[in-house]
TrEMBL record:
Lineage of the organism: Bacteria, Pseudomonadati, Pseudomonadota, Gammaproteobacteria, Oceanospirillales
Protein name listed in UniProt: bis(5'-nucleosyl)-tetraphosphatase (symmetrical)
Protein task: Hydrolyzes diadenosine 5',5'''-P1,P4-tetraphosphate to yield ADP.
Family: Belongs to the Ap4A hydrolase family.
Catalysis: reaction(s): P(1),P(4)-bis(5'-adenosyl) tetraphosphate + H2O = 2 ADP + 2 H(+)
E.C. number(s) listed in UniProt: 3.6.1.41
Domain Calcineurin-like phosphoesterase: 1-122
GO molecular function: bis(5'-nucleosyl)-tetraphosphatase (symmetrical) activity
Amino acid sequence: MTTYAIGDLQGCHEEFVSLLEHLDFDPRRDRVWLAGDLVNRGRGSLECLREVEALGEAARVVLGNHDLHLLGVARGKARTKHKDTLNAILEAPDRERLLDWLQSRPLVVREGETLMSHAGLPPRWSLDRGEALAGEVAERLAGEAAEAFLEGMYGNEPACWRDDLEGLDRLRVIVNTFTRMRFIDARGCLDFSAKEGADSAPPGFAPWFQYPRDDDPRLLFGHWAALQGETPGSRVRAEALDTGCVWGVALTALNLDTGERLCVPSRH
């Protein structure tokens, strides 16, 4: 059995199928971890959802910000944005089954000392702490208050985590950390203005992986296409998976056993 980790699909269905073929992936034997943002921007968002859902237990998926946005549009009161490519999902005959499946995905997956989330893990959160906080969001998504959460998850405030946060403020910081984090300051506060490479940090901020940790986990993340799979200046074992398929670059798979990276070029 081989386990692979693949970065943001964002509707790049043809490339996803091509990459699985390139890997000689067999769901009866192999496993794939997907770093979130299965949908949006690309033209095959519906097909990506169907393809991944059909893999069953062979696929482990975390929620990304675009996945949560789809749920917010479909089940909250959010509106689609002009660059969204979600209509095919919203109009599909199997939309409710696919949305139920997506809504049941976690913010993190973990095996031992390896953890994957869409955007990373801040240095002040241990693996256990990260799992526990992600579990709070999963519990809300599975409960009767899911719609209220999906309506209230949008926004940049609070930008800093505090243990005494409650309600939607608490859940919003957890979601933003796991799905939107790029640059943080020494206190762990999030910046949402800069989205380019690691050298574009605002004053007082740096990429989250350039801060040291007290432990030494293996952290897998997507979200940050501008990094092109690199983590310059990293002080932790962080491995970037998003190589910008939807932006015309490539879709990449990391062999978690050997560290080898395989990719297929974008067709966009």
